[in-house]
Amino acid sequence: MSGLDWPGLMRAGLNGLRLHPAEFWALSPAELAMMLGERGQAAGLDRAGFEALLQAFPDHGAGDGHDASRKDG
Question: 24 with 13: CB under 8 angstroms?
Fold first, then answer.
């Protein structure tokens, strides 16, 4: 026995998510859990985390040699 509730998972995938059987069986357990919104997943990036990333990795401005829109001839 695997300990997984296969009938429940199949109902959730086929009925709840409206997956085709081939799509359901192609998913890994982690992918199915993500699609079902299982708890215990990592939370999304909050504003404080985003601000910390901006401080650690600032965007480069125009004129500093990193401007992607600049066209060199």
Answer: yes
Token representation of residue 68 = 């992607």
| Nearest-angstrom CA–CA distance, 67 and 71 | 9
**Residue 14 exposed, middle or buried by CB count within 10 Å (0-12, 13-18, 19+):** middle
- Name the token pair of 59: 């965007």
Per-position DSSP letters for 34-67, written without gaps between them: HHHT-TTSPPPP-HHHHHHHHHHSPPPPTTTT--
From the CB of residue 13, how many other CB atoms can be counted at a distance below 10 Å?
20
20-73: per-residue pLDDT in tens?
A: 999 999 999 889 988 988 766 566 788 999 999 999 998 876 666 665 555 654
